[in-house]
Amino acid sequence: MKTMSESWDTYEAFRDMVRRIACDKIEPLAVDLDKTGGPPDAQFEIFRENELLGLGLPEEYGGGGGDLMAQVIAVEEMARVCSASALTMTAAWGTLDPLVRFGSAELKQAIIPPVAAGELRTAWCITEPQGGTDMAGMTTRAVEQDDCWVLNGTKRFITNGSWAHWYLVVARLDEDFAIFMVNADDPGICFGPPEDKMGLRGSPTSDVIFDDCRIPLDRIVGDRSGGLARMGLSLTHSRPVIAGQALGVAQGALDQAASYVKERKSQGKLLARYQLIQEKIGDMAIRVESARALLYRAVDFAMRGDPQARSLASMAKAACSDAAMSVAVDAVQLHGGYGYLRGVPVERMMRDAKITQIYEGTNEIQRLIIAKALLSEGGQA
């Protein structure tokens, strides 16, 4: 896939292509994926065949070279039909961003090409049992011993858990933090049982445990210090992608609700003809489009390297996930009793929406980031 240009027509053509894949190939599998709990092997293969797994990775390493706007559009369209599949598609883009930015040429060459080709899967390991929001409180530790690093600690709620091949791990090193790449075949890495989740049931999640896990010295990503700052830069990139996932859920729920009220009758009249229903649909559409406008503004600032990108990414993440939750709940309400049944898309979308308010930094933390930026000396969000 060629690098996306700045032409909006190019983005819209790309959107149409992803939308066709989502509707034709991913949507028919969504109910069964949610029911069985994955892993999403068939979806992963579809993404591999359509060269989407490497979309957010550099062309020089076999990736698609898609910029942040292309990534957001892709996840938005995929999440309109299946949020768990969308997360599967995007996993490598965020996981490998620190490696792309700060890793050695040798480490990039060893890991990125097979991941971009869909031969290997990735996960990143930040959250720990005592909390995911307080990154500075992480206790997983790395110690240099002779010719290797030795890692000890537990990472919790890890997307792709035991399903991945490469793990990007943030660990305490000396008095600071560093980033490491750990392979599933390295001695001392093991995994907890799969989590039985409310939503995103088709996306594997489990603990990743390091028990005297030994990795080569050249698996460190960047310097021995400054790992949290480097992860902060990557989160400014990954939060808009998660916001795009949430926006896709919101749009999908709105799609389903609008379709349903145009077909369902009450007292001999289509629901869509009732003014109260029209008002609710209108409010849902406003929330979706407002969130989309903020997200695209955040992406524009991030792509230009503007200092406000970090707080705008937090705004977009909070706004899109809040919209996803509220719109999905309204969509269930408009479906009446049918919306409460398993197998009906809006019921799954409501469950899937909730996690977007929690992971990639809770929305409470996003609001603190925004407020601190506004109240700082510069006073700009």
Automatic annotation (TrEMBL):
Domain Acyl-CoA dehydrogenase/oxidase C-terminal: 227-375
Catalytic activity, reaction form: 3-sulfinopropanoyl-CoA + H2O = propanoyl-CoA + sulfite + H(+)
EC numbers: 3.13.1.4
Superkingdom, taxonomy of origin: Bacteria
Sequence ranges assigned to domain Acyl-CoA dehydrogenase/oxidase N-terminal in this UniProt record: 10-119
This protein's name: 3-sulfinopropanoyl-CoA desulfinase
PROSITE patterns (alphabetical): ACYL_COA_DH_1 (PS00072)
Residues annotated as domain Acyl-CoA oxidase/dehydrogenase middle: 124-213
Keywords noted in UniProt: FAD, Flavoprotein, Oxidoreductase
Cofactor: FAD
Gene Ontology MF terms in the entry: acyl-CoA dehydrogenase activity; flavin adenine dinucleotide binding
Protein family membership: Belongs to the acyl-CoA dehydrogenase family.
